Amino acid sequence: MNAQSKSVGNQDRILAARQGLIPVRERAWLGGFGNMLRKELGQWWGTRTWWVQTLIWVLILNGISTIVALTESITPNDLLQEVVQTFLPMSVGIIGMGTVITTQGAIVGEKQLGTAAWAMSKPASRSAFILAKLLAYAIGFFVTAILIPSTIFYITMRALIPASLPLIPFLYGVGLVILGQLFYLTLTLMLGTFFSSRGPIAGIGIGFFMAGLLLKGFMPMQILIATPWPLPDVAGGLALGASLPSIWPVPIIATGIEIAVMTILALWRFGREEF
Amino acid sequence: MDTNTSNGNVIHTQELTKTYKGVNALQGLNLQVPRNSIFGFLGPNGAGKSTTIKMLLGLTRPTAGKALIFEKDITQESLAVRRKVGYLAQDPRYYEHMTARQTLRYTARFFYQGPKDLIEARVEEMLELVGLEDKADRPIKGFSGGERQRLGIAQAQVNYPDLLILDEPAASLDPQGRRDVLTVMETLRKHTTIFYSTHILDDVQRVSDRVAILNRGGLVAEAPIQELLNGSGSSVVYNVTIKGSVSGAQARVARQPWVRSLSAKSNNGAVNWQVNVSDADAAEDQMLRLILEDRSVSVKSFGRKTHNLEEVFLSMVGEESKK
Asked: Quick check: B93 and A114 CB within 8 A?
């Protein structure tokens, strides 16, 4: 602390400097949102995270679907159906699990380290803290795990398979991948506000995903359609223009409602957090 | 600088209480922190100091009671309160991947949206203040405890706070670092109010002008530091050294209604009295006269005993703990 007298300065200088700075003007419930979002996005795009994530998802999703396209010797239309039914359902599932693994420490890590308490000692609202994380992770996963692999998939399959894959239905399928990813993201963030260690978060998140794989075939339809578990099948069917059961919108609406409810629960619980 | 405070108090708490699972961490705290004071908040571990600070900052909710900072309610208007406050935690934690400069920039952007050059200038100024210019662009994960504390002091001041709340600001610093922190606090007194908790009683005695002592979640004392050091109420003690035949004088003084106790000890032909009085004015006015009624007695010294803060603290906390 070698320059105290110089840096503390006199009152006039301090007041002049203060007058030049423009205070942040945000609604109370969104206080600090812009700053925290910039920081969260910086962690995705200002570090190697974005290209590591992109590389992993391209290798997994595009790698497997390309292998299927190159090794199956069936008619082009059947092959197209095969690769779409591989790519989209696999995307919904694997990205969901990847989201749980990557995001499990997003809230709880900050609670454990004390950085959440530090941020909340500044003029930042708790809802802004959660929403900044939600938005930054949603954008990060959307670009690295969905947009780039889906674009590569569409271009690659058009080049490899001499059959038509209409863009709009394919985008409907991609939309359901986004919906599934958002479900697991909000689930993980919400669990992070309720628990104080990563174990239960990863356990419940991955357990829910695995339960979908194991129980889907045995579960009564009334319960199944209230979960995101049918989304992989619906995504494939929509992309290929296949005929779907009349109740196909129900899991989409239910998942949307569940995302909203889990976001509200996360905001409510974090608002009551005692640091 | 905020002047919008009632009775000149920046912090005003009223029966502020915090209970964790049935255990009282803080019970009915009534505290007034005057504007532009350096207010020392003392107490043993677990006394409720950090709990109080966390409640003032909205990090935890009061179970009962209320508190105002700059006349704003800490629960209803917490965000507005935090705009005017700088805070240094007891064990400051930051994002380890960020550099000191990025941390200060991030902190500043909670308060200011621009212009960018003025924000950068303020960040630079704070780096200079704490002597971290040469480490400004290194990730915090490589920082020592002292460097983290310095960064903490810088981030707490980045918004020109009207109130600085420091939780054990010098705890992890070496003597030189401690001295620097105290110097900064004294310099900032002109611009801001400083409310800080500490265990280091020497520091409190050096810089504070008002002190509160907390024990087991309750307020034991709150007074200007000089008042505490001089003693007050039942703890005012006079030291008297006399020579000659003292028994008559001792009996006369001990009979006075304002004398609570008198202890005498012989020392090299003189006698040292410690007279604990309940009324300092009466003692000042009458004690010497009573002693000197006897012409065979001579008074070598007479004065009010000045305590050091450690004595005051230990006696108050000790008495409270016996209850």
From this structure: yes
Angstroms from B125 CA to nearest CA on chain A:
6
Q: Which CATH number fits domain B233-306: 3.30.70.260, 1.20.1250.20, 1.10.357.10, 3.30.70.330?
A: 3.30.70.260
Give the pair of three-digit tokens for residue A138: 């949603």
Q: For residue A1, list chain B residues with Cβ-Cβ distance below 8 A.
A: 129-131, 150, 177, 180-181, 183-184
Alpha-carbon distance B142 to nearest alpha carbon in chain A (angstroms)? 16
C-alpha B204: how far from its chain's center?
6
Helices and strands of chain B, counted as H and E runs: 11, 15
Q: Is B170 on the interface with A (CB under 8 A)?
A: no
**Alpha helix segments (H runs only) across chain B:** 49-56, 78-83, 100-108, 116-129, 145-157, 175-188, 201-207, 225-230, 247-254, 280-292, 309-322
How many angstroms separate the CA atoms of B101 and A187, rounded? 34
Q: Does B84 touch chain A (CB under 8 A)?
A: no
Reported as a single tens digit per residue, the pLDDT across B209-254 is 899 999 989 999 898 888 887 765 556 889 999 998 888 999 999 9
Do residues B313 and B225 touch, judged by C-beta distance below 8 A? no
Q: Can you say whether the dihedral through the CA atoms of A194, A197, A200, A204 is positive or negative?
A: positive
Q: Is the ipTM of this complex over 0.90?
A: no
**Do A123 and B191 make contact, defined as CB atoms within 8 angstroms?**
no
- C-alpha A252/C-alpha A234 separation (Å) is 9
